[in-house]
Every structure is written in structure tokens, then in C-alpha cells.
Design brief:
There is one protein chain. The protein is α/β, with parallel strands linked by helices and 347 residues long. The protein contains twelve helices and 17 strands. Helix 4 crosses helix 10. The chain starts with a strand and ends with a strand. It binds zinc ion (2 copies). The site of one zinc ion has 5 residues, from loops.
Length: 347
């Protein structure tokens, strides 16, 4: 098969590699479309070293068609179109013993810890597969994983009808949270970012959201004005780094300052720097901070909403590239983050 192989950091090669061989409990997937994630950009740059072992075929957001099934596999057939949940948990650690799989201490992902969907074929276990309905196109199927991140975060926060929301960061994750939120609450949503294009992209899809460019306005002030000082019920942090340089406030602290008394802050951004948080501000509100990592079976929820037309996956996609142009795709994401959100690779 051919695959996008990362042999040295910052350099992809589209080249011939050995076909994967399945065992009796495995399924062989023909990867059709794979979506490039922010984590892939970090893997590409070497930030995940030494967790990533090179050469690696990345890709943890993808869909494909079942090409071959192991002799012991039931429930699936050759030709089924599936979204692939890339998570592999150990089943034995304290978190897994409590069925809290996203917190597995030795959690592994296809495309991070082992070869993934940027190759034409990939091995998966049946428990990782979710059948796509006929209403869902192959391209949109490759976005089930990232939208699952959004749904997991709103499930962690127990978002309910009427809740008002602030989302800090409107990159791939922020947009996914927004889409999930819009299936659950008609409460006012505020979006905060430093990149105007991303805010406008969201505004075009959901005209009733209030966008705040933190380079131009103080988000806390704007939210206070709109809500007459009540602030929002839940704030999501999907920035992942301290962008207070340039912006008016650090995102995590901004989240704490955007919520009402007894509100909730959900953190998803995977930054490497500590966030300056004044805990007194959290304590005064007797607020909750909730962490959200990957997803926990929300693939089913995403597929159900996608099937009914409740989501707008097309909004996330700015480009579709041939897999052989993978190097160019990664360079564009780095050089022009304001012009590209999701780049999908056609495998
Ligand atoms: Zn991802
Ligand atoms: Zn575990």
C-alpha cells in the first residue's frame, strides 16, 4: 500500500510500505478520507517525541471501508463504511476499572502510538468501528472523531437546554464544541478568538452566536454587557496555550471570569505551559473545573445527529488534498492558520 510516512520530523513521504496483515480478531480498513488534527501538527513538528516512534503513519481522524475481516469477527461485513474510534485503553488501570476510559493511564491511539489512517490500509478492532448511515458522506465521516471530542466535552459538562455558553478558541476543537452545543441548548453562545476569519466562519454557520475578537475587545466586558452581569453558565477552554500575549486575558482565567456563580469551566486545550489561574476567583464562585479528554463512545451520538442533518460538518472543512500532497497540507496549516481549518486527505 501507499502511506504518508513520517520518517523524520517535519518531513512526510508518500511512499510504498508493506500491507498490514490482520489477525483473527481484527478488521482491515481501507482508509478513504482522513482529517488532519491539531495533534497531528504537533506530531509532525516532533512535539510528541518520544511518545511517537518514527517511522510513523499518523492519522487518528478517519473513515474507511471494510476490506477484510478476521475469522472471529462478527457484526461487520466487507464493504461496510465505518468511522474508526482510534482509542485503545488498557482495561486494567484504576480509571479503566471504573469504566472511565478516557482517563486510562496507558491510553493509546491509532495514528499516535501505532500506525493510523494516513495509510491506505489500517488494522482496527471491531469495538472501534461505528457504521456510517447512507445519509453520511465519506468526507463527512472523517469528521466523526473530532465532533465526538465536542460531544464528549458537553457531556462532561452536562450541558442542558437553556444553558448559556462561552467558547474560548474557535479552532478545530472550538468549532466541534460549538456544533455539539447547538444540538442541545438554544441559550446564547459567545465565541472568543484572536483570529477574525475563524470567528466569521462560525458566525456564517450560526448567525445567532456573538463573536468576540479578544485583540479588539475585552471578552469579559462584552459578556457582562450582553448578560446584564449574569455571565454564562458554562465556559469551554479550547485554546491550549497561553495566548494572553496579544489577547486581553489568559484563556483559562478568562473562562473563570466568564461564568456565573456556581458555573462550570471545561478545559480541553492541551498546552505545555502552566496557566496563570487565580483560584480565589474560582472559589468565590464555588465553581467547577472539569477536564475533558478525547471521547467516550460519542461516535454513536455524532453519527445520529449527522444522519438527521443536525450538524454542519462542511463548515469545518476548508480544503481537500490528495494524500500524496500531505507535506504541502501540513505546511499550509502552519503558515496560514487563519485561512485553513480542517484539511481532509483523500487516501
Ligand atoms: Zn484529533
Ligand atoms: Zn486503563
Amino acid at each position: 500500500m501507499k502511506a504518508c510516512v513520517l520518517s523524520t520530523y517535519k518531513k512526510f513521504e508518500w511512499k510504498e510500505v508493506a500491507d498490514p496483515v490482520i489477525g483473527e480478531n481484527d478488521v482491515l480498513i481501507r482508509s478513504n478520507y482522513a482529517s488532519i488534527c491539531g495533534s497531528d501538527q504537533h506530531i509532525f513538528s516532533g512535539d510528541f517525541h518520544p511518545r511517537t516512534k518514527l517511522p510513523l503513519i499518523p492519522g487518528h481522524e478517519f473513515m474507511g471501508t471494510i476490506e477484510e475481516i478476521g475469522s472471529k469477527v462478527l457484526d461487520f461485513n466487507v464493504g461496510d463504511r465505518v468511522a474508526v474510534d482510534p482509542i485503545i485503553w488498557c482495561g486494567k488501570c484504576p480509571a479503566c476499572m471504573r469504566q472511565h476510559y478516557p482517563a486510562c493511564t496507558s491510553l493509546k491511539l491509532l495514528g499516535v502510538d501505532m500506525d493510523g489512517g494516513f495509510g491506505q490500509y489500517v488494522i482496527a478492532r471491531p469495538g472501534m468501528l461505528y457504521k456510517l448511515t447512507p445519509n453520511i458522506s465519506n468526507i463527512h465521516g472523517s469528521l466523526v472523531e473530532v465532533l465526538g471530542i465536542g460531544f464528549h466535552s458537553i457531556n462532561r459538562a452536562r450541558v442542558k437546554q437553556g444553558d448559556t455558553i462561552a467558547i474560548w478558541g474557535t479552532g478545530k476543537v472550538g468549532h466541534s464544541i460549538l456544533q455539539a452545543i447547538k444540538t442541545r441548548t438554544e441559550g446564547q453562545v459567545f465565541l472568543i478568538d484572536l483570529i477574525e476569519n475563524r470567528l466569521q466562519l462560525a458566525k456564517k454557520a450560526y448567525p445567532d452566536v456573538i463573536t468576540i475578537n479578544a485583540l479588539k475587545e475585552d471578552p469579559i466586558k462584552v459578556i457582562a454587557e450582553y448578560t446584564h452581569g449574569d455571565m454564562v453558565d458554562i465556559a469551554f477552554e479550547a485554546v491550549g496555550h497561553d495566548s494572553s500575549g496579544g489577547g486581553t486575558v489568559n484563556p483559562v482565567r478568562g473562562c473563570i471570569n466568564s461564568i456565573r456563580g456556581a458555573g462550570k469551566v471545561v478545559v480541553l486545550g492541551l498546552g505545555d505551559e502552566p496557566s496563570p489561574v487565580l483560584f480565589k476567583e474560582l472559589i468565590w464562585k464555588e465553581a467547577k473545573i472539569i477536564a475533558s479528554r478525547v471521547s467516550h463512545g460519542e461516535f454513536a451520538e455524532v453519527i445520529e445527529h449527522m444522519d438527521k442533518g443536525n450538524l454542519k460538518p462542511e463548515v469545518l472543512i476548508t480544503d481537500i488534498f490528495q494524500a500524496s500532497d500531505v507535506q504541502e497540507a501540513f505546511q499550509l496549516l502552519k503558515q496560514e492558520p487563519e485561512n485553513h481549518l480542517k484539511i481532509i486527505l483523500e487516501m
